[in-house]
Amino acid sequence: MTHTHAVRVYYEDTDLAGIVYYANYLKFIERARTEWVEALGVDQIALKAREGIVFAVRRVEAEYLRPAKFADELVVETKLQALGGARIVLEQVVLRGGERLFVSVVTLVCLGDDGHAARLPAEVRARLSGTLH
Prior knowledge:
Layout: E1 2-8, H1 24-39, H2 44-51, E2 54-64, E3 73-83, E4 87-96, E5 99-111, H3 122-129
Antiparallel strand pairs: 1-3, 2-5, 3-4, 4-5
């Protein structure tokens, strides 16, 4: 199951050459992950308040294929690749009109209040498991 999130490129997203500054792709995929989790019915604020659990990025593998430019209409696709005890691995792709511009594999870890890895709560695991293919 793939989640999609629309992104419009604003002037502030670009560099002197008029193309999207490389670090801004990380912002685009972060926003898409937030929307993906929310679409699954996971309330991250409640999860932190109730169980002291947060998600943190542990690793990002990124490949920049083609530049996006000011005023481009982009789509970020988010797809769950793997689910471990405390680990979530996602593939996230930024597209313009179906053309792949940026491809990433993002590893998230579930952290407890003490900053150490914590098992994904059963409810969250069940919601995420439904998106694996």
